[in-house]
Amino acid sequence: MTTEARSLPKADHVAVVRARRSLGARLAEGVGGGLVRVFLIVVGLFWLVPTIGLLLSSLRSPSDMSASGWWTVFSKPSQLTVESYQKLLENSDITNSLLNTVLITVPATVLVVVIGSLAGYAFAWMEFPGRDWWFLGVVGLLVVPVQVALIPIAELFGKIGLFGTVFGVVLFHTGFGLPFAVFLLRNFFAEIPRELLEAARLDGAGELRLFTRVVLPLGGPAIASLGIFQFLWVWNDMLVALVFTKSGSQPITVALQTQVRQFGNNIDVLAPGAFISMVIPLAVFFAFQRQFVSGVMAGAVK
Questions:
Q1: CB proximity list for 171: less than 8 A, separation 6 or greater
Q2: 62 Cβ neighbours under 8 A, 6+ residues apart
Q3: Closest CA to 222 of 180, 173, 175, 193
Q4: 241-262: per-residue pLDDT in tens?
Q5: Residue 272: CB partners within 8 Å, gap ≥ 6?
Q6: CB of 186 within 8 A of CB of 120?
Q7: Which is nearest to 111 in space by CA: 176, 41, 197, 47?
Q8: How many angstroms separate the CA atoms of 174 and 186, rounded?
Q9: Under 8 Å between Cβ of 281 and 231
Q10: What is the structure's pLDDT at 207?
Q11: What is the DSSP string of 185-251?
């Protein structure tokens, strides 16, 4: 900076600095505010168009859907009706499959979170023979594709009577969700300051009390992130459900696919069923989005 620039008043000095900046830097500063926000809002609205279209389609009658597109609702609001949802509730295949989805997703998520938390704490802070080798084995399981294990596990479940049951699908999702859960939570728990754990031990806390009173509260964001990931993965799964379920244990994804194959023109049932299948995981995500963001940011900072 020259002597002349130093002698200028503060306002003139700022003007000189801005004038010497490159054109690209000045343009980036100009569009870095409101224009970028408007652009992101427009992108977000375009991203929501399929969801809005599915919702409006589920609220229209089959004759209206065959006659025009869903966007005509904005000019003719009288097309909106809940008749399709009434038919959906009368369809036992869809309602039973929705219940099966809940019975599969909730236990598979809870088991992965509970077992993964206990194992992550053990690998992070407990000493036992071969701890590092066991953890390397868990990390190695992350690279095993689900498709490789479908046929062998299906044969195993068939021999022990678990094939085609909800419990068998829960076991499969739990087994394949645990390696990532242990890896994620072990790395997060390992970043907890050792001084906190040592202070709790000096106060007489055992391992279980230490885990429940110190580690779990500090690891809440990471556990919430894991729970969201596991819930979304299991809820939206179709491959495992196609292989391991039968007609009485099918989740909503398989039931909707079966409806399309058997009754290709029953859009009045498929549209509300697909919307319900989509909106429930969205509601779960938005309900826990604060914990999810906290977990992501905590992992980034550490």
A1: 162
A2: 267, 268
A3: 180
A4: 888 988 788 898 888 887 776 5
A5: 58, 84, 85, 87, 88
A6: yes
A7: 176
A8: 17
A9: yes
A10: 79
A11: HHHHHTTS-HHHHHHHHHTT--HHHHIIIIIHHHTHHHHHHHHHHHHHHHHT--HHHHHHB-TTT--
Residue 50's pLDDT is: 83
CA proximity to 277, closest of 246, 247, 245, 252: 252
C-alpha angle 229/288/240, rounded to 5°?
Answer: 25
Separation between Cα atoms, residue 123 and residue 144, nearest integer Å: 21
DSSP states of 108-163 as a string? HHHHHHHHHHHHHHHHHH---TTHHHHHHHHHHHTTS-HHHHHHHHHHHHHHHT-T
* Single-letter amino acid, residue 161: G
pLDDT tens across 9-53, in order?
544 544 544 555 555 555 555 555 567 778 878 888 888 888 888
- In this prediction the pTM is 0.77
The whole-angstrom separation of Cα 114 and Cα 111 is 5
Count Cβ atoms within 10 A of the Cβ of residue 87 and give its class: 0-12 exposed, 13-18 middle, 19 or more buried: middle
Give Cα separations from 163 to 144, 241, 252, 255, 302 (angstroms). Answer: 21, 11, 18, 18, 43
Which pLDDT score is estimated for 125?
86
How far is residue 291's CA from residue 40's CA, in Å, rounded to a whole number?
23
Amino acid at 166: V
Is-contact 211 173, C-beta < 8 A?
no
